Amino acid sequence: MTHSPKLPRADGIPDVDTLIRRFEEKGYVTDRALATAIFLGIRLGKPVLIEGHAGLGKTEVAKVLAAVLNTRLIRLQCYEGLDVNSAVYEWNYQKQLLAIKIEEGTGDSIEEKEKHIFSREFLLERPLLQSISAEDASPVLLVDEIDRADEAFEAFLLELLSDFQISVPEMGTIRARHIPYVILTSNRTRELGDALKRRCIYHWIDYPSLEKELQIVRARLPEIEERLGREIVEYVHAVRELPLAKPPGVAETLDWAAALGALSKAHLDAEAAEQTLSCLSKSKEDVTKIKTHGIENLLSTSS
Amino acid sequence: MIPEEPERMNRWVVEFCRFARAHGLSAGVKETLDSLAAVRLAGMSERNTLPLALRAVVCSSKDEWDRFDDIFRAFWNAADVPAPKAPPTRQERRSRGATGEQRAGGAERPIVTGTGSGRAEEEGGRAITGASALERLRKTDFSLVPQQDAEALERLSLRLFRRMALRLSRRLRIANTGVGPLDLRRTIRRGIPRGGELIELKYRVRKRKPGRLVILLDVSGSMNPYSLFLLRFAYALQKHFQRVRTFLFSTQLVDITPTLKTSSLAEALVALSREDAGWAGGTKIGESLGEFLRLYERKLLSRDTLLMILSDGWDTGEPEVLAAELAAANRRVGKLIWLNPLLGLEGYEPITRGMSAALPFIDVFAPAHNLESLLALERHLAFGGAR
Question: Under CATH, domain A16-80+127-205 is a member of which superfamily?
Answer without folding.
Answer: P-loop containing nucleotide triphosphate hydrolases (3.40.50.300)
